[in-house]
User: What shape does this take?
Amino acid sequence: MGIEILYVFWFASIIMVGGYIVWIKKTSCKQSIVNERKVCEERIKFDSDIIYKLAFEDELTGLYNRRKFLIEGNDLLQSSHLAHQYALLSINIDKFTFIRSIYGYHTGNEILIKTAQIIQELTAKNGICGRRDDAGFAILFQIQEVGDISLLYESLAARISKIKIKENINYGLQILVGAAIYPTHGSRMSELYENVKFVEDQMRKNGNKTFQIFDNELKETILRQQVIAMELQEAIKNKEFILNYQPKIDTLSQKIVGMEALIRWKHPKKGFISPNEFIPIAEQAGLITEIGKWGLMEACLQNKAWQDKGYEKYIVSVNISAIEFYQEDMLDSIKETLKTSGLEAQYLEIELTESMTIIDKKQTIAKMKAIRALGVKIALDDFGTGYSSLSYLKVLPIDVLKLDQSFIVEIERDHVSKCITLSIIDLSRLLNIETVAEGVETKEQAELLSAMGCNMIQGYYYSKPIEADLFEERYMKIV
Ligand code: C2E
Ligand code: MG
Ligand code: MG
Assistant: This one.
């Protein structure tokens, strides 16, 4: 219990501790005025120290609080008059709430204090730092080049990961750091903060990065994606999707043997939007299942309608994204679609991409086998991109292998690519897997692939993907 109130009158000073008067000192009039001023000055200093601390300092770590950091930051930026570059960094201790709930508040606070010390040490020479919120800190520091930011990030990450409170416990602390650069990404702290916040949100959402520097282009892309995600919901309601079909030509007979259904979004204002752009957004926004179910049903209905008109029967291939494939009701959904459309299973082929098959090999193989047990064929799409491995061909239950366009482009000019393609085609034949070359654009490519023993060709050389009516007119023949 300390001194609480110090009263000073012209005749005496009264000092109180804990509400009790403990000392009364008589003073002469002249002396009392001197004392009064001195005490007032001390009191003012004492009060203003407290007010300063309360207003501008973080109580736990002693760093600037958010408000003071902003003020100091703006001052620093203004005084630099665009002559220097600064980086604003936000530093968050990842999963801090979780760590604190396990090790307790005291340990949590110790971690924050040690983190603050590390941040302060590393930025003392050429920057300022502050605490933003619970486990969030910020740094504004002068840089010579962008690389300085990653160097600082690395030092911070390394030192914070080694924080120890109790000797034998390693907390495995990780930090998430977002950065924006003055003046490129903003001329005031508020602008820089906003951009850093944007980067932080992205990192949290994607969960695959612990350090990222803001990028104007990235922001534009993401804003566009957000608009598309919103518009996609309308597109589903307003039925703005259509399917185009691209023929697959048999290299021996030179006749059509099937067609791939490729989705198109007919946006009322922006025109056609490529699936390469909207499918990944639909996946992220949780809309792909609905769109995929529509696509599967539409392709089956169309194929059945053509068959019912008496045309030769072909296999329709439908692309399925990883998210759809791993849905629990995936198999039921295929069964249901075949039943509703009346299409026989042998006239449907599902295209899966190679990359998704490695997510969970055991589960994937089981699911693929179940699909094939229905009589539906499975094609492995885009082979040759990503983690291509010939060993997959042996373990994955597939009927068709689609060689990616990147392979096809290479075979004409690169001898090694040609040899690799030839080996893949040979191996596939041995394993009873048919091969389709995707993205074939020239006569030379078509002839070369045909000579290599590739079974089917798909590409602009024969036809671009076209609308159902045109496809019917061009390729459907009465038997
Ligand atoms: P994909 O399944 O590999 O389809 C082949 C892509 O190559 C198509 O692009 C097709 O238009 C294009 N293509 C075909 N021949 C040529 C050629 O000779 N040259 C060039 N440069 N390109 C050619 P598209 O239609 O833009 O589709 C892109 C991707 O979007 C597809 O790649 C597929 O992964 C995905 N996709 C398309 N429709 C659907 C769908 O209904 N559902 C899902 N989940 N994905 C789809
Ligand atoms: Mg495909
Ligand atoms: Mg492909």
User: Anything to note?
Assistant: The domain at 66-214 is CATH 3.30.70.270 (Alpha-Beta Plaits).
